[in-house]
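---------- Forwarded message ----------

FYI, see the LigA protein record below. Original note from H. follows.
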Amino acid sequence: MAAATPNSSLHLPHIARRVSSYQNRKVWFPMPFEDRLGEAMRHTGDSFELGDRREIVEVGLVRGRRRLARRRTAAVTGSVLALATVGLGGGYAVGAFGDGGGGAAVAASSKPTEPAEPTRLAGADVRGEQLVTLFKSLLPPGTVSKERGSGPGDPSGVGKPGAASMASVSAVFDDGKGAGRIALGVSRVDPADPSSGEQVSCPAKAFVDYDSCTAEKLADGSRYMLLRGYEYPDRHEPTKLWRAVLLTPKGALIDASEWNAAAEKGGATTRDTPPLTAEQMKALVTSDRWLSVADALDVPVKTGRTSAGSLSGDVIQKRFLALLPASKHLKVVEKGNQDGYAFAVVDDGRGKSLVQINVQRGMSDVSPRGETSTLPDGTIVGLEKAPGEKGGAGVVTWTADTVRPDGFRVVVFASNTGNENKAATRAEPAVSLDELRGIALDAGWGGGE
């Protein structure tokens, strides 16, 4: 996401608008669970202000896809404006409570989990140990260790911004076939905000590499998504990440992740797939016992900020696709958009090529990347050919970055692959640098404020 980035560049749709020194790019980055949860909450639109997630819940929420950081983030590696971690990446972020994260650690247990009486938690005094007890009661038979939990009632959360905005819990679970890490977060979001819906929408494959993804609407109106993917987009390590997310009509967001390793990153895999089956993951997040936890959390506060100045993603995409060179007979095999951003994976018969565009206002203080020149009307144009940023073998990205005198910026970039995390599929991008420049300077984009 990327936005100008989902490096997140990815504009996961507006999760966190952040300014970075690279080109506006939208790219998805694997983001740790805690980051993903925090970003998702803050990202509940530009109209919501949530506290710094790193200090929100010591449990792991401390680590954070600053992605949008995207690390979503690193995320943004080169993005001028990164709209946080959800969006086209479907809010996909990988990783979950880091092993080194601070938080309320609960005494480890080497004993198999035992059936527990249904537990309902309510009130702002919900604590980490209570969350761990509830979490363990919802897991199938097995051994649980390295439990961590953090709730709004924990002393560690007192006085910290957003401390009552989310709750989280994680543990290492072993069903006898190998240990796997499982993490779950509960937060409150605005169910009507598009960014919230992105949390339960399958991400674009142009940004996220996964084996399967299903999204459905449940009988009570809740939306549910199950994504089976990988901790690392380029799969340089065999760690699998499966993610299940539930968004209720009232704005409760229950987000769980599991790995086929005892740690999300840096640990050896212990089994072929994560420990919980698809059915068990669904049962975990759809348990109504998490709803009372959500009810105890603070509701995001509106700050009055809006994204009214951003161009609609649909409008950008329509014009963008119309400006692609017709003479090349490009076939659009995948496309998507968010406010201020659009992308298309095209193929002229010689291989797939990812082409992206960011459109922003108020960017007078930004210098275009690459070799620059100034047009008679004062527009500054930057052109650049550079190696890809996601590690795909042989990938190159060509960029045309334009900033008009009124601060209206249009950045168009193309890569010689349909997914920058994967190897190049052709020698050069399907759209030339001169053609990218023409798209960026088209008079039909309008102007600034």
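H. also flagged this: The longest strand covers residues 179-188.
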